[in-house]
Amino acid sequence: MQKSLKDQLDVGLRAATFAAEHPDANPIITAAGNNLGGLSGQGNTLAGEYQVADQNRQAALHGRRRTEAAINTTLGALQGIAGYAALRRPDTPVQFRMPGTHGGMRGFASRVRGVLEVVNANRELLLTYGMPDTMPEELLAQLEAFEKFVAQRAAAQQERAALREQLAEVARQLMQGVRHLNGLYRIRYAASPDLLAAWRGTIALPVRGAKKEDDAARTRPAA
Questions:
Q1: In which element (H, E) is residue 220 found?
Q2: Do 173 and 139 touch, CB atoms closer than 8 A?
Q3: What Cα–Cα distance (Å) separates residue 99 from each residue in 49, 72, 96, 116?
Q4: Overall pTM surpassing 0.70 (yes/no)
Q5: Could you list the residue range(s) of the whole structural domain that residue 136 is in?
Q6: Which residues fall within 8 angstroms of residue 136, CB to CB, at 6 or more apart?
Q7: What pLDDT, in 10s, does the model give residues 85-140?
């Protein structure tokens, strides 16, 4: 999640907490605080879902890379056997190229399927020169796992993007609510500078990019 978005959600939560800890007889202030509380709860739920989607995306990415490496290892072994078979039987089109990475992940999968067709078409010949009996089936299982990880990552990426948009909208509404409550509190606490200062500190956003040796805790008002 973007730091600026997380900052806005955090400010909204702190503002809602402040309002809950300072109940007010003014129904408009109470409603504004309750609105922030509802939005903060919604943001917290979405943030949890976003984290799960991001974890799923990362897990699928790692799974895809791991399976891709396993496929290349299997193909590397097969390529050596196929190369020797081609030397012994030059009339048989048994050689193949490694799939490479150009054309994206779906292109990679398509090229691996092409290699599988060559292997299955020349299975008996390759068995003669040392290919393990189950290697084509193992390669197919690796390919299917690879395609599954590719699909899982795409789905998680799409879900993550949708949740980011929803979080951005909640953050936008939270900032509107904080500005509204800030105006109300500036009037309410005009004669209470300590309370007003506490409120202003509550809604301060961190200043990103500030040098730590200067002041790592520098903040700027959210409203």
A1: strand 219-221
A2: no
A3: 36, 8, 9, 11
A4: yes
A5: 3-221
A6: 116, 119, 120, 123
A7: 999 998 888 878 777 766 677 789 999 999 999 999 999 999 999 999 999 999 99
How many structural domains is the chain composed of?
A: 1
Please tell me whether residue 210 adopts helix, strand or coil conformation. Answer: coil
- What does pLDDT average to over the chain? 89
Q: Residues of 164-198 as b/e, b for ≥16 C-beta within 10 angstroms?
A: beebbebbebbbebbebbbebbeebbeeeeeebee
CA 180 from chain centre, in angstroms, equals: 33
With b meaning 16 or more CB within 10 Å and e meaning fewer, what string describes 122-157? beebbeebebeeebbeebeebbebbbebbebbeebb
Amino acid at 63: G
Q: Which long-range contacts (CB under 8 A, 24 or more apart) does 168-174 make?
A: 168/5, 170/9, 170/12, 170/39, 170/42, 170/43, 170/46, 171/5, 171/8, 171/9, 171/12, 171/43, 173/39, 174/8, 174/9, 174/11, 174/12, 174/15, 174/36, 174/39, 174/40, 174/43
- Residue 218 pLDDT level (bands cut at 50, 70, 90): very low
Residue 157 and residue 147: Cα distance in Å, rounded?
Answer: 15
From CA 95, how far away is CA 79, in angstroms rounded? 7
In the numeric block, the tokens 């999968």 are attached to 109
Short-list 8, 6, 1, 2, CA closest to 220: 8
Query: What 3-state DSSP class applies to 206?
Result: strand
